[in-house]
Queue: 2 jobs
Job 1
Amino acid sequence: VSSLSGVSSATPTEEMNGAGNLMDFLDEPFPDVGTYEDFHTIDWLREKSRDTDHVTIRNKPTCYHSKESIWELIKSLLDAWSGWVVMLLIGLLSGTLAGVIDLAVDWMTDLKEGVCLSAFWYSHEQCCWTSNETTFDDRDKCPQWQKWAELMTGHAEGAGAYVLNYFLYILWALLFSFLAVSLVRVFAPYACGSGIPEIKTILSGFIIRGYLGKWTLLIKTVTLVLAVSSGLSLGKEGPLVHVACCCGNLFCSLFSKYSKNEGKRREVLSAAAAAGVSVAFGAPIGGVLFSLEEVSYYFPLKTLWRSFFAALVAAFTLRSINPFGNSRLVLFYVEYHTPWYMAELVPFILLGVFGGLWGTLFIRANIAWCRRRKTTQLGKYPVLEVIAITGITAVLAYPNPYTRRSTSELISELFNDCGALESSQLCDYINNPNMSRPVDDIPDRPAGPGVYNALWQLALALVFKIVITIFTFGMKIPSGLFIPSMAVGAIAGRIVGIAVEQMAYHHHDWIIFKNWCRPGADCVTPGLYAMVGAAACLGGVTRMTVSLVVIMFELTGGLEYIVPLMAAAVTSKWVADAFGKEGIYESHIQLNGYPYLDVRDEFTHRTLATDVMRPRRNDPPLAVLTQDTTTVEDVETLIKDTDYNGFPVVVSRESERLIGFVQRRDLTLAIKNARQKQDGVVSSSVVYFTEDAPQLPASNPQPLKLRRILNLSPFTVTDHTPMETVVDIFRKLGLRQCLVTRSGRLLGIITKKDVLRHMAQMMNQDPESIMFN
Amino acid sequence: VSSLSGVSSATPTEEMNGAGNLMDFLDEPFPDVGTYEDFHTIDWLREKSRDTDHVTIRNKPTCYHSKESIWELIKSLLDAWSGWVVMLLIGLLSGTLAGVIDLAVDWMTDLKEGVCLSAFWYSHEQCCWTSNETTFDDRDKCPQWQKWAELMTGHAEGAGAYVLNYFLYILWALLFSFLAVSLVRVFAPYACGSGIPEIKTILSGFIIRGYLGKWTLLIKTVTLVLAVSSGLSLGKEGPLVHVACCCGNLFCSLFSKYSKNEGKRREVLSAAAAAGVSVAFGAPIGGVLFSLEEVSYYFPLKTLWRSFFAALVAAFTLRSINPFGNSRLVLFYVEYHTPWYMAELVPFILLGVFGGLWGTLFIRANIAWCRRRKTTQLGKYPVLEVIAITGITAVLAYPNPYTRRSTSELISELFNDCGALESSQLCDYINNPNMSRPVDDIPDRPAGPGVYNALWQLALALVFKIVITIFTFGMKIPSGLFIPSMAVGAIAGRIVGIAVEQMAYHHHDWIIFKNWCRPGADCVTPGLYAMVGAAACLGGVTRMTVSLVVIMFELTGGLEYIVPLMAAAVTSKWVADAFGKEGIYESHIQLNGYPYLDVRDEFTHRTLATDVMRPRRNDPPLAVLTQDTTTVEDVETLIKDTDYNGFPVVVSRESERLIGFVQRRDLTLAIKNARQKQDGVVSSSVVYFTEDAPQLPASNPQPLKLRRILNLSPFTVTDHTPMETVVDIFRKLGLRQCLVTRSGRLLGIITKKDVLRHMAQMMNQDPESIMFN
């Protein structure tokens, strides 16, 4: 028997095979066994035990020679700390990238309007900050900063200058978006979109090679700057999560512990997603909860601690870069000075309803448009589409001051309470001449003409944003929808806020206002309404609740406003859920047909495993291998004739008693290897999976032992197991497939695809829509 | 066949059994089938599918008669909303209880020292607040509040008055603690301790009847007040979690959806734990994370949302009761005015090391003492023990002002920064006469004699707290250790803080201080050191990280100080973990021998299922039932002779092919029921688990069909499955037992106890220490 050198493998279940392993010694381990092909699903249980394997090898006792032992010690320490090191690196790199992106976007957004004469690489704000001639009242105006028309013609005002500025604004926007879409198309097609649907799918155990690669990282970073600067209605928050995950993937490759284990790699990616949100909003705790609530699939406690660490490092790296120039961590820093009143819950809940309706409308319309893009001619001209949408956006956005500026600036202004020194149009209230109070606590005042003017412009901006965002999200450029969604909500909220404020001022004798709003008091904070509206709209689109509220809480820093935010977020979720359970990310996952098993879908149907397993009643029997009677040729025929990813191995076709499961990929590799390297292996050689070679006549060719690639612990359920339990097992253990038995006999197989197809069927969806690319 | 009326049951797997069920119609469902006995472990998968059952029954189409349909609609709405209703009720009740406890503790703590003449139910602070004669400088002194000596003898000062006050202080303390321990012993023995170890065990799926009952709730609330007021070194935070969980259990009984399903009930309890921490610290987000990180076992996203809701409601209920009189949600509200400097990380990390060492010392010493209490005569005199410890505590605590007051007041003072108006001894700095700065930003000053005096007293208090807490935690009264741990850390931190501050003041030319501390600047905030120390010590004892940092963050409200807190918490965890993996709660779980399968323990040994399963090599064969040849008598003998909780059912003893699993409890009940109600069932009747009755000679007595209680989908693994995978499956699916097969033949069984015993063995612990009461 010792002449039959077996085929080596790294499959862990095999290594545990204790006795008898010395017999089938290895030529060399062939490298790819136990890995996955592109667009395949990983087996979490297998990955987990591969890691243990690794740990056990790492911890094996070493001989204590002086030098080596120190080296070993350093190596083992590095290995033990590698998780934290990776987190540190992710935090540093994603914080730095976020800072660079922020600075670049600032500069390029302003470049559309003008240039700084003292140094062309200064943005408008930096330009005027460095200028000494600026007075505090008019920070935005300084001689160093010149609009294009002024620079080119010398005239700052007038219709001619306006038209020239308008024209150049559109030209720059077109240039930026053309560059963005071209770069994406040529270098990294995976860099488009927000990336969150794909990351969710990857984290749930799917393999998409290159999606988190170096090229994607580079191109996504560059094109994100271009896309945001072009003035399109999109944000950088979602793509930042993708960028952070790319960083995570990059650093995984430094440590074999992470690069070789798809399960461990996903733990790092979960933490990276937290770091991404952390830098996007300056909200580390919110980022961790976002990763937990929205993105991750498998989130053990260890990952919780590490994500928190990564998120903190990222946030502090960003703060030390200080791109907003205000030493603040957060994108929209606000401070409110007045509490809210119980009666205000009514408008807050109405904003929640609005958010839910907007979420539903957006998801339905966007998915319909994306489906049209996928199925019609439209999808063939992505560059043209981007150019056209950019053109329309620029043409419509420029005349309205609220859409001309960058969306995050708009949100920031809408969130802010009107202080005494505020010069914006939104704060054009008629001042009480007798006012002699401190700056913080200005009583409610009647609105001046500027406010009414602003209301009209905001209403137009609202309609514009709603329509254009539907067409923008899903184009072939990096695009997030946090910021556009928040903008829609913030505009609606601010409008409602001003309306309530003016009502309270003019009708403070009405019964509803009487109790909480005396004349001369500061009762209503329109900025808070904007914030609540933003939370509601974001919640309607993404269906986040806790992480959303925590992110908003980290923006304001006061527990005071959690109740309004919570009320709006929960209302919005309920309203939106009434029209359809899926958030925008799940809808896009479905649209793209990724095999994603959502942890949130409840499966409450009473089907049994036997209803789902294949083969079905009239199908041909299950393709199985027998433990010691199949020949190499039989195996090769089976592989050629079927496209299954693996085959159960049974004792014999008569008894149908299961002994194990073998992966197609491993089988192909093993036979190829054996044919090349092992003498005597021919087509008529018997393949056997038992410990000992079968008793064969002497005339037969040498048999081939394949026990090493056999998984001896395949997962089985009985045919009477309720599908609910099966779905639960698939979710919690992250299985790829599961065998179905009855009284010890193999009946069939259920794969993840079968489960997904069955779930779709039960929810009256077309099961064929799950295409899996 | 129709004369054989079968035995009814509510087991869901049975209901799914489609065809052939009409035959064995039911007399009446006997009530206890599918429930668990006390001190048994639940089967999560089974509970989950029971819930689906419930949903399916609830959703079945109803006939639309006018009145009924409205009633049905209301019922189904109530059912759908019952989760949120339960959360609302939990939040309201636990918030109210927490408020009442706070108020009562305040009053009774002060009662030890004196009484308010204007109204005896006022605490010292309330008494002086309502008095008009108080000046701002001396809030604590007012004529209405009289110490006992003053009231009884008329002399407020002098040695006689001191001795009388001292004596009465001890007397009150003894009275309170005697009442507490007697109430616990007589009415609710489960009300003692912090309750968190038991709640962790219950949430992991163990049944302890009465642990969360109404009596426990009532007695724990009352005795908690008494215990805290008696001045013992214990806190109310842990017990508040227990109280909140009792509330949760109470409200579960209102809805059959929760009261009848042990799995759903645990989801509610997880949320209740979050509400408990939320009111304990005024930190709703921290509470949710505490429940997630520290307490819960199964924490789906739905529970995350609901816990958050419950935690918020609880926090706001508490705030509207306003027990601290400052409209603040939080127990220790602090505001710091100066940032921290990079060099301060060194003392912060040292505090982390101290916290880790304290955690290790505390856990080891406390467990050793508790073990001694369990095993020696000591445990037989719990009342005496409590009285003795109270006496010692009171005698030693009174002379030192820092131990005389309540521990939370002490922590509050230690956390606070010294403002200009602060009158405490700790703030007795030598003022710079030229100082004309605003109140907020006082530069570092040299310490006055009061500070040095305070340092000595604090050092004595530190030693006292360290020693007495070890003996206090684990006595038969409600006792939490958050507050004592935090006190130890806060004292240590404040001492270090003052030392660094004075060093920086006197040696600001040293190289380490040169860069960040110019003379006349406010460089060091000793209060921040106290907070960091408190976090470190709490982290060392409980091994929390993220939730700890978030709780502390909610206390200060600024992201600014997250890095120091994080550094200290992580250092403390690492140091403590180096000496032993278990936190105090896990250690107490082990000490009490609860069957708790920790999600955090990594199992990395290479054993296989076959090494763990029973029967072992020389054991008698596995006790099994056959599908159609066992008689009623055989079954009864088997039940009598063994104490297994369930029996596998096989086709026949020869083939050993598994068809299902039957619970001992169900089997006993079914046979008892059949003997009583079904004619013809005698000892020699054959019991069968197949669809159809076996072919028997006509002379045989009527067979008994038991298919309804048979679980047709028992969980199986092969004998080659690595134990690591088995442990993972037990954890993630919450199994009670798992059958082991090889090529379809039943080999043995692995129960949760076997898994725990094996894990203990692998970690070189005595497996017999897992006693399971």
Job 2
Amino acid sequence: MEAKIELIPEGNVTSPEGFFAGATSAGINRRAKDKPDLGILFSEASCVATALFTTNRLKAAPVVLSQQRLKQGRAGAVVVNSGCANAFTGEKGLAHAAEMAKLVAEGIGISAEDVLVASTGVIGLPLPMKRIRSGIDQIILSRGGGHELARAMMTTDTFAKETAVKVGVGDSEFAIGGVAKGSGMIHPELATLLCFITTDAAVEKDFLQKALKKAVDVSFNMISIDGDTSPSDMVLLMANGLAGSAPTDAFQQALERVCIYLAKCVARDGEGATKLIEVTVGGALSLAEARLAARTVISSPLVKAAVHGADPNWGRVMAAVGRSGVEVVEAKLELYIGDIPVVKAGAPLPFNKRGLIQLLKGKEVSLSLNLNLGSGKATAWGCDLSEEYVTINSQYMT
Amino acid sequence: MEAKIELIPEGNVTSPEGFFAGATSAGINRRAKDKPDLGILFSEASCVATALFTTNRLKAAPVVLSQQRLKQGRAGAVVVNSGCANAFTGEKGLAHAAEMAKLVAEGIGISAEDVLVASTGVIGLPLPMKRIRSGIDQIILSRGGGHELARAMMTTDTFAKETAVKVGVGDSEFAIGGVAKGSGMIHPELATLLCFITTDAAVEKDFLQKALKKAVDVSFNMISIDGDTSPSDMVLLMANGLAGSAPTDAFQQALERVCIYLAKCVARDGEGATKLIEVTVGGALSLAEARLAARTVISSPLVKAAVHGADPNWGRVMAAVGRSGVEVVEAKLELYIGDIPVVKAGAPLPFNKRGLIQLLKGKEVSLSLNLNLGSGKATAWGCDLSEEYVTINSQYMT
């Protein structure tokens, strides 16, 4: 049965039935005083929920709390703030996260156990709880509040990352919406960044877990901004079932579409980024080797800097794939930059340097490698490395 | 028996007895026309020799050739050029490397099998052999040529990295000299960059191999500039025996001193770097965990950018050690920046922010972490990440 997947115009995390959101400027984020920095996402019907969390050993307090609460496989709301990650804050941080959840639960009238917490921003500072308390009081939830929530999650992001799709398949119709925030300390390790995905489809918990893992593996786990994995990362999927059951194939397909769209948004909006880079590695001995090779190339600061300057220094792509640890045979390698063949059978081809530079100057640059050894294929996304990345990150706290 | 190790003023790779060097401007490096870019290092007595090579799977032609020749455990000379790495150049590249060795062998009057080759620079371009041939003809070897050789190896390096020590222990006296070049595509993986070490001590091949591995593990394997491992890396150690036998302890100690000095020079002179960063991790469960943690922190672009901007964003150090994969317990962590305690028992200490910023503005910044879990301890070196790094690397080829 063919699924019809349509983009919802200006769709976001409240596009699926029964989801409400709202946000406010609580004054947590000192660097963006007019931007909302505290928000709530809520489902009027209790959700089957699952999430993937950071693999960083020093998990932020909201991660510890949300991981614990999701053991029950259900959730009703998430409260999120930017400007302070509540990470490396010890017992006090855990108490702060619990209080945030409790305040939201009381305001909405659900159990505190059903409220998850996410925070992003500076590591090592305590949450300004007075501002959080009065901020939570001020938030008004609405069916159209998804975009405000997206804005509240932004730190150094330059645009809100959100999307939604409507899926029709046979008799069933459901929607999936999503929101994500970048844009530094991002490197694929199981889950990166903050992302909330909502759906009104009715789905079993076990399937939901597997579906999310599979979708994240081809999306968020295939992006890198700077090689640093944050202590706050979380990709959350909440399904409230209001639209009834959904065929699993169609659900998986739509979920991956939403995740890949958001992951590419995050990559494109990496700190200081001026362009999106897409690296595809084919012909690897296995899927795992293709993934590793693509992730290594997308993470190479030298490849990223060369693309930034539209410098056709393709040797750096070869150096990166060579150090990735995957099986490569020089004489079999093929490389395309965009649609221009640059290396074939391990030998550089004569190419039009001016044309190649023109292509590298575009807003999207694709690098395609064929290792010609097997059938493993994977795509990774990232961004160029600019002087601006350094400027942003040398003055983050001061 | 206590060894007396003295720095030789203006010492370099020709300070040990019997070593000769010379260099010329062959015109290989188009970006630095006045600088020598082709050099030869030669020992009048045949050397016991050993080397560590890059772990990159796509090894440059000179690496393939030198690795093969060193199986005999002996060498008499090395020819080195900058400006072109002769990497990813296939069969033609191998032929070019072999021809370089042959020309040098004929000029000096030794067997081509005793000549090693090293190249550094752009990847994927063929060596300009006409310039190499006439360049080799022009080189005049002398006992004082070490410094010219060091200059010939430089690419984006801003200063020549060289040193030598004189060792006296009991009746024996010998010298060890070394030269290294950085300064991009540097990340610890067995061996990084180009480094030649010479000694007039008489040492067995087996000991020489072990001694070099041990010294590189605490020096070149503990530095990172940008996380990229080049296809051209080589650390070579040549011992011509002219000064007679040396006690192994004293030799090891002096060798490590030379290697650590050169490794720190390379770290300090990373592309675009304005300061040296030293990260010490103590109290780890094992030496391996201490090494991994120190290397992860020194490689973090966010830590490097924060140090660049003298931004006391210590949370990034914690995030990096947390993602390193080593065992850490938040409540036991201790961090010093310079001699200022910043975190104790997992909790931030009140600190004088102005004093800390002043300290971070220095040319050398040390970060000391104590995990308080065991006795593993290691030190790693790197540099800050500056806008200049991006500028250099976005215009390397164009």
